[in-house]
Design goal:
By secondary structure, this protein is of the alpha+beta class. Helix content is about 30%, strand content about 30%. It has four helices and eight strands; from the N terminus they run E-E-H-H-E-E-E-H-E-E-E-H. It is globular and about 40 Å long.
């Protein structure tokens, strides 16, 4: 049917969180559907790690997003945070990879083909394209990045950058 439904529920916290996603919709339609759902899921959660973890879980359901996660900026390094997908690189310098470039440039990085990016860190050979979006503190310092890897070359566009940036405003 192509409709993904995610429900989180526990005995201690019977409140149910459900996310619906039509995986056959266009990428923009998926984001437009997800925006209000993600806001309801994470906007009122006071813990940043919990917000990040749930955002990763939701975004990981978008077809071709095989790895979705955060790296925190700590002492000139990027340190693995909440993520969904295969085991990842735990730590590397901000002078390395696409994530490091996003921190140094304080800008969104869209890499259509990671094999053509000088210094790309290959945590998985499944990664073909990548988008990295900085997360800013209230005083505009990059404190983390959202990193998404796709199994498809050229999978990310300005549409992804726009909607993912909107979601990061709640982080």
């Amino acid at each position: 049917m192509g409709l993904f439904n995610f429900t989180a529920r526990s005995k201690k916290h019977p409140m149910s969180e459900q996310i619906s996603l039509n995986i056959h919709a266009s990428r923009e339609e998926m984001y437009l559907s997800l925006l209000p759902q993600v806001e309801a899921l994470i906007a009122h959660e006071p813990d940043q790690i919990a917000r990040m973890a749930n955002l990763c879980a939701v975004l990981h359901e978008i077809p071709s997003f095989f790895w979705v996660g955060f790296y925190f900026v700590k002492d000139q390094q990027l340190v693995l945070g909440p993520f969904q997908g295969p085991v990842a690189c735990s730590r590397f310098g901000i002078d390395q990879g696409v994530c490091g470039a996003a921190v140094r440039n304080k800008d969104i990085m869209i890499v259509p083909n990671v094999d053509e990016f000088p210094g790309h860190i290959a945590c998985s050979e499944l990664s073909k394209s990548e988008i990295v979006i900085p997360v800013y503190s209230a005083d505009q310092i990059v404190t983390a990045v959202l990193d998404i890897d796709s199994t498809r070359i050229g999978d990310f566009t300005d549409t992804d950058a726009l909607y993912l940036s909107q979601m990061l405003e709640w982080i």
